[in-house]
Design a protein that fits this description.
single chain; 47 helices; mainly alpha; 10 strands; disordered C terminus; Rossmann fold; Serine Threonine Protein Phosphatase 5, Tetratricopeptide repeat; three-stranded antiparallel sheet
């Protein structure tokens, strides 16, 4: 468009100076500057001596005809002859410029005159400058453009200004206030007329909101009615509109939509992208929508939803929109939201819950319809992690159930969640659901099996042997999940009876059975997830770490991808336990940290048997802290264990006893016989919630009992381990654990070496422990053999990231007169500041004290209390084997400041035939 004025000026000059006529045809959308160009042409031609005629053409010639004495024309033909004669006469006197704007608005006679006169007067000094709107379907205008003399006609189309040109024009019009127009630029379409109009509004007292409305209204008013209706309808429908859907909304066939669409595209309001239309800017669409009254908008959107429903659009694509448009009691909207929830639930339970929640808002209060919706919402909320709201809704439905079937389904969902029912007389609700004739038999059977599974996991039922068999006999196989649930029940029961090989057999078909279920809904059922988690636990116990990891990784990925928080809280602790059993302590600690709530105090657990699930996580936390030397975490676990010990639930008390025994062993403190017996009961039960008790824990129990002087408890632990190994000959971990426990109890180094070999690579922590225990037995009689075993244990602990165990072995090596070589870990590298087993905090205190600082000065520089400094210093004295600050400073100066040469370990000396019976060096 930048060359258009120059082209126009050249044509006017050729007319004036060379008497060259012709036609100049200008097209463009409304406000593109056509009228401005025609006025410019007239301004250039008149001073140069040309006669300028403007529309209406026949009216402009009528006065001249009257002056010539011509009478009123009697017919169009006579009028055309007189106009032709008049133009011929004028052109003899001087050049003539005929300017005619908005040709598309001309009547038929004027269009006929233009088509006829441009042809008949070709060759005369008459220049016709004609302007018309682009892409308008006016047949007469199209015919006129086609019939213009081609050899004497030039034409061009005006287009929108580019952004830089728009800003320059705005600056020319508004000067220093040009920045005020910036928010409105997307509404202007780069059209000069619209830009001038907007700038005029901005420089007046018009409010900002009125400017946007006025600009958009002006652009809409310049459209033909079909094009205007197209824009308004499209604006209501959204940011991207399908042409087919738009044609149905306008009740037009798609070919009939072509001309209005061309007009809208030419006006720069929308753009086409394959079979979709979009507005050129979101703010433009918003401004167009604002021009429509709210009832009109709602009506259009409802019609759009109706049409898309008829077309088979998925309910999930319409649920949010129809939910926003619906009024209370709109049953059709409720049905659509329910369908959307069914579609979304397998892939995004939170989205499904949102749809059902909106349906409940639309349902009339205190009606059976609302209660049934609440029953559907309960499992979705629980899966998404909103257990409190799920239980509250379940309580509401159980108090006033709409029908027996809904009541039974809510009971089933509560059984799946676990924990007590949130209403009094839970057993009465279960009996009512199990005995009502209207409740389908498959629902009854699954309710019976799931309730039994929940009781077993929560510790509320200790059925074993015939009792469990009798309970399972009543659970028929009429429900698709029943066989899978019963297999898991039998597997857990076998575990309780110490029949772990049988437990594995019962769980073998669980993955295959789960895969046979509906792939959309199978993974969403708690029974399936619990059964798969249990199978993964058993595989890890049997030494099949890869098989267990495959199940856990796939289950956790699916739960995280779908937003199933309840199942994430089952899978992630299972991964922690698998990593812990495999000696990958640092990875287990990182994974465990993810399971904690933001407060870092209470772990996030699945709601099914919530207390038992939390206790299972607590045991894993304590084990990790026990090996890594995390004092703070171990103290937190010990505090939580005391709370469990005071609980009325036997399962929690036994778990609390076990954690308290670990904490005492960690502190080198004795445990009472009562707590040791409670811990033994915990190990004998074999499982806690859906997690297996690690078979190697019996070794720590025996060690704790021996350290506490409770040899009878230790003997019972050994007997239990050996009996369990005999019952499960196909599981080497049980055999190695029994040999390890017996070797500890008897002080038999050969048995302990045998146990280390039995643990193998599958259980590196237990192998290192067995080597350390064997070295302890050999220390008095065979120092060389002891040192070799200690060093092997040290390497094993270091590879696992068991910092506390490694520190203990280093101390035992130093007690034998050896300086342990530096070890490397398979996990993340130890802090560079580590020295002789000191923690980073202890080393920081030692460094300041060695440099002459007092406890208070060190506390001030480290921003801790003097009591903390004293505690770190006492631990450092014990680890370094020094008794005074002077000895500490000398040792620090010799080994750190002076960076002395490395010293060979005594095991190397023994290998060279050097006597190993030497004293520890005096510090």
């Amino acid at each position: 468009m930048t060359d258009t004025p120059e082209l126009l000026l050249r044509r006017v000059l050729r007319l004036v100076h060379r008497h060259e006529g012709g036609v100049l045809w200008i097209e463009g959308p409304a406000d593109s500057g056509k009228s401005h160009l025609l006025a410019l042409a007239a301004q250039q031609a008149a001073p140069a001596g040309a006669t300028v005629l403007t529309a209406p053409l026949l009216g402009a010639l009528a006065p001249r005809q009257s002056e010539a004495g011509a009478g009123e024309p009697d017919s169009p033909y006579q009028m055309l002859r007189q106009a032709e004669d008049g133009l011929r006469e004028l052109s003899r006197q001087r050049p003539v410029l005929v300017v005619h704007d908005d040709v598309h608005h001309c009547d038929d006679l004027t269009l006929l005159a233009l088509r006829t006169l441009t042809a008949r007067l070709a060759g005369l000094p008459v220049l016709w400058v004609l302007a018309a709107r682009s892409h308008l379907d006016v047949p007469a205008v199209t015919a006129l453009r086609r019939d213009l003399p081609a050899e004497q006609t030039d034409g061009f189309e005006l287009t929108a200004l580019d952004p830089d040109a728009v800003r320059r024009l705005v600056t020319d019009l508004m000067g220093p206030r040009a920045a005020a127009a910036e928010p409105y630029l997307p509404l202007l379409g780069g059209l000069p007329g619209t830009i001038r109009h907007a700038c005029a509004l901005l420089t007046s007292s018009t409010g900002p909101d009125e400017v946007a409305s006025a600009v958009v209204t002006r652009r809409l008013d310049q459209l033909t009615p079909p094009a205007r209706e197209l824009v308004l309808t499209a604006a209501v429908l959204g940011d991207s509109i399908g042409v087919r859907h738009l044609s149905r909304m306008l009740e037009l066939r798609e070919p009939a939509l072509l001309n209005p669409l061309r007009e809208v595209l030419a006006a720069g309001l929308m753009r086409a992208d394959q079979d979709h239309l979009t507005f050129v800017h979101p703010s433009l669409r918003a401004a167009v929508v604002a021009t429509l009254p709210l009832p009109v908008r709602v009506s259009l959107r409802r019609r759009s939803v109706d049409l898309r429903l008829v077309d088979g659009t998925p309910a999930t694509a319409l649920a949010a929109e129809i939910g926003a448009l619906a009024d209370p009691g709109d049953e059709r909207a409720i049905r659509v939201l329910e369908a959307a929830a069914r579609e979304a639930a397998p892939f995004a339970p939170a989205a499904g819950a949102a749809y059902v929640r909106r349906a409940m808002e639309l349902a009339l209060p205190a009606t059976p319809r609302r209660s049934r919706l609440a029953a559907r919402l309960v499992p979705l909320l629980w899966e998404a992690g909103e257990s409190a709201e799920a239980r509250a809704l379940a309580r509401e439905v159980l108090q006033t159930p709409p029908d027996p079937v809904t009541h039974a389904h809510v009971c089933l969902e509560l059984a799946r969640m676990g924990g007590p029912f949130p209403v009094p007389q839970a057993e009465a609700h279960l009996r009512r659901a199990l005995h009502h004739p209207d409740v389908p038999l498959p629902v009854k059977d699954q309710l019976r099996s799931t309730s039994l599974l929940n009781r077993l996991l929560s510790g509320a039922a200790e059925e074993a042997g015939g009792t469990m068999a009798g309970a399972l006999a009543h659970a028929r196989g009429t429900h698709p999940l029943n066989d899978l649930t019963q297999r898991t029940l039998r597997s857990i029961s076998a575990c309780h009876r110490e029949r772990w090989s049988e437990a594995l057999r019962h769980s073998e078909t669980v993955p295959a059975q789960a895969a046979e279920l509906d792939p959309a809904y199978g993974p969403t059922l708690p029974e399936v997830v619990l059964s798969l988690v249990w199978r993964a636990e058993l595989l890890g116990l049997a030494g099949d770490h890869q098989g267990a990891a495959d199940l856990i990784d796939s289950g956790l990925a699916e739960a995280e991808q779908r937003g199933r928080a309840a199942y994430v809280a089952l899978w992630r602790p299972a991964r922690v336990r698998l990593l812990l059993g495999g000696g990958r302590l640092r990875e287990a600690a990182r994974e465990l940290a993810v399971t904690q709530e933001p407060t870092g105090q209470r772990p996030a657990t699945a709601d099914m048997s919530d207390d038992a699930a939390e206790a299972a996580v607590l045991c894993a936390r304590a084990r990790i802290a026990f090996h890594t030397g995390d004092d703070r975490e171990m103290e937190a676990c010990a505090e939580r264990a005391e709370i469990c010990l005071a609980d009325g639930d036997r399962q929690l008390r036994r778990a609390g006893a076990w954690v308290s025994v670990l904490a005492a062993l960690y502190r080198d403190a004795p445990s009472s016989g009562e707590r040791l017996n409670g811990a033994a009961a915990h190990l004998r039960r074999g499982f806690l919630h859906v997690s297996c008790v690690d078979a190697g824990d019996v070794v720590l129990l025996a060690a704790a009992a021996l350290a506490s002087g409770q040899r009878e408890v230790a003997a019972a632990a050994v007997e239990f381990a050996e009996q369990r190994a005999r019952r499960n000959p196909g599981l080497p971990l049980f055999t190695a654990a029994a040999t390890h426990a017996r070797g500890l109890y008897a002080g038999d180094a050969e048995l302990l070496v045998q146990a280390a070999e039995g643990h193998g690579d599958a259980r590196p922590l237990l192998r290192a422990r067995a080597q350390e225990d064997a070295a302890g037995c050999l220390a008095a009689a065979d120092a060389g053999g002891a040192l070799s075993r200690f060093e092997e244990a040290l390497r094993g602990y270091a590879a696992c990231g068991a910092d506390r165990d490694a520190q203990r072995v280093r101390g035992r090596l130093r007690a034998l007169g050896a300086r342990p070589l530096a070890t490397t870990s398979a996990g993340p590298a130890a802090p560079a500041a580590e020295w002789r087993g000191l923690t980073r905090s202890e080393l920081g205190v030692v460094r300041l004290i060695a440099q002459g600082a007092t406890n208070r000065e060190a506390a001030e520089r480290l921003f801790v209390s003097p009591h903390t400094v004293n505690t770190h210093l006492r631990h450092a004295f014990e680890k370094l084997g020094v008794r005074s600050r002077v000895q500490l400073a000398r040792l620090y100066a010799r080994e750190i400041d002076a960076a002395g040469a490395p010293v060979r370990t005594l095991s190397s000396q023994a290998a060279m035939g050097v006597s190993t019976h030497v004293r520890a060096p005096q510090v």
